[in-house]
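Supplementary notes for students who missed Thursday's class. We covered one full example, reproduced here. Read the sequence, then the structure, then the short commentary at the end.
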Amino acid sequence: MRKGRYFTKQSLQKGNKILKFEQPGEFYSRIARKSMEKNDLPEAMSFYRIALNRDPHNIDYRISLANIFTEMGQYDSSNRILIRIAREHSDHGSGCYFGIGCNFLGLQEFDNAQESFRRYLFLEPDGEYAEEAEELLVMIHEDIESITYEDEE
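Structure (token representation):
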């Protein structure tokens, strides 16, 4: 049986070289997506963080990380990322407001959720999530009215 080759301090001093295994952010992003498909959110989060370290300006990695936080019920962490993206990148901001609104719903902060959905609809009246945002606004309004009605009784 052949023994494996290990790098020791002595072998490194003799001039043997170790090749670095550095991959771009996309490599780690692919692994993160596969982890998401397996519903391994902590692992996906770890790989998206590595991807962001490799490519810190990649908005898609940031949005994916925010989505993982949302899936894990960490709405405040997700909102911190989404709010920063919305402020810094107007071309991605409108979609972020929809995500922010959903996170506020998860936090039961209905006024903030309404504000976020309204902002989304103002920026994207015919956007991908416009119909859902309108339905959520109606639902929030009905919930607030029913709470107010119950308090009056």
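Commentary. The chain has a mean pLDDT of 87. Residues 130-152 form the longest helix (23 residues). If anything here is unclear, bring it to office hours.
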